[in-house]
Write a structure and sequence with these properties.
Layout: E1 4-5, E2 8-9, H1 11-30, H2 36-56, H3 64-67, H4 71-94, H5 98-116, H6 127-155
Antiparallel strand pairs: 1-2
Helix pairs in contact: 1-2, 2-4, 4-5, 4-6, 5-6
Amino acid sequence: MMRLQDGEPVGPELAEIRRSAAEFADWLRVEGRGDEGIAHDAFQESVEATLLGAVVRAEPLPGPADLGVDPELFLLGLGDLSGELRRLILGRLNAGDLPSADRLLGLMETLYRTLMRFDTTRAIVALKPKQDTARALLERTRGEVTMAHLLARASLPSSPGTV
């Protein structure tokens, strides 16, 4: 997975991940017929890393065509992004940056709604566990962001006449 340095993605590493994934996808299409199954994990990780880089840079998320991967692999990588978003949110909470945590939580909720649009019983069997994990991470993270807001309010000095 892509390393973060001071909370930011390392640019050259992210560019290398995208370049290598595109080259690997081209190789699979031309010479690697029959070996696609072994490449799935690598493509999922490259999708996750690229999406995380876009989130941290506040850029639009690229789609499967932008990354040169099949939609199924894109969705599996997208499903893994929930854990990375949770880590970013917890980091923002630790730094006392509630507005950024709220913004990322909104993105996490959108990601979850997007993942749930797919009927995994017929479409992508491997997506169901990622949907379940995304739901659990979202609920736990939402609770932690709510608690941070409550604690922030409790630590504010009361104005006269308020209880």
